[in-house]
Amino acid sequence: MCRVYSTILMVETEDKARGLQELPVRLLRMNTGRQAVQCLRQENVDTVISRWDLVDMPDGLLLKRILAARPKMPTIALIQAGNQRQEILARSLGVTAIVSEDIDSSFFRRLICELLHIEDFAAMTMPAMTGAD
Length: 133
Prior knowledge:
The protein is of the alpha/beta class. Helix content is 34%, strand content 20%. The chain has helices at residues 14-17, 33-42, 61-69, 84-93, 105-116; strands spanning 6-11, 25-30, 47-51, 75-79, 97-100. Strands 2-1-3-4-5 form a five-stranded parallel β-sheet, covered by helices on one side. It is globular and about 35 Å long.
């Protein structure tokens, strides 16, 4: 059994979660901000990766709530490609990292490994990504 280094809550980021599956992390995947809030109440989460605009919590509301309750929790905002407004708002909020939704999967994986201090796993072979994934 492999040691799990971190529990990551991923909100509306299923396309990015596939690239992290082989890492020694526990991935909790939610589709809405409401589900994420409930998960945070029930699970011991170390890091949150969330799209900036969620259907039920637009304009970074989920990340704002998380950082208000847990200011030291590592948070990663996934913003629309080229959306400077979202980037500025996320920076002013103080998220740990801001990533464009069109980021390359291998670069995203390396970034997450660096943030979690598990760089040795960044170069592991990623699972094949097909349209069926």
